[in-house]
Amino acid sequence: MLDNIILGFETALTLHNLMYSFIGVFVGNLIGVLPGIGALAAISMLLPITYGIDPAGALMMLAGLYYGTTYGGATTTILLNLPGTPSHAVVCLDGHPMARQGRAGSALLIAMLSSFMGATIGIILMMAFGPLLVEVAFQFGPAEYFSLMFLGLLAASTLTTGSPIKGVAMVIIGLIFGVVGTDINTGISRFTFNIPELQDGLALVAVAMGLFGIADVISNANRLGEGHVVSSKKIGWRSLRFDKGEFKSSLSSIFRGAGVGSFFGILPGTGGTIASFMSYAMEKKINKNSKNFG
Question: HSE of 60 in the Cβ direction (CA atoms, 13 Å)?
């Protein structure tokens, strides 16, 4: 394995492969700030560009595009309270309040560092324990997947700071909205009302933009000049600095989140959305600073 890792670094650290990776990350960030366009859509659109590139450079550009798009969604989530991807819905709970306090730079920086560290830890675990993790994933059946989904729904219901009944009602309404679309087992359209666009279901990003983004624009349409402007107390690079001890206290959360993400990442059909909700719910229970959440 060490020989393969050394060979991989020798291939990846060449100048032209690093250039392809930089192009992928740069374009991914530009696409990621557009709400509703996720990493898979970006890769699908830009895949033909890689046909004339050598395989190593093409894979590095696609990987950079994936990571860049994934992080770019955090920009609109933190600054505009519009989740760029479904997995960024949890970032709205703390990222946008930090931006309204003038600390948008710190929120964007911690999102970038935690994404980098989490991805690095996940790749290391995949290289070291890949065969073992695959064997564990194959042991999961319908009962285990149902338990994980149910646990994720319970975790989502605990994210509310008010009445627990409202949290459970929120999850039930979400399940009702999730019924809309084409049934994966029978192919029958459910609650589409003969509207072809509803056959793919209700996209979480579109629902979030309608509930929060468009609703906020309409509510403030007649109050121009009275809204709250998100500004930074620090200018330039100083806006990216953390407060004293802030990053050190976040390291434990980053490692726990990387562990949760690595576990759910090996299970087919789950992914980052469930992992982010589970990680946030876990942090609310065990983090010493959970009273400052939100």
Answer: 20
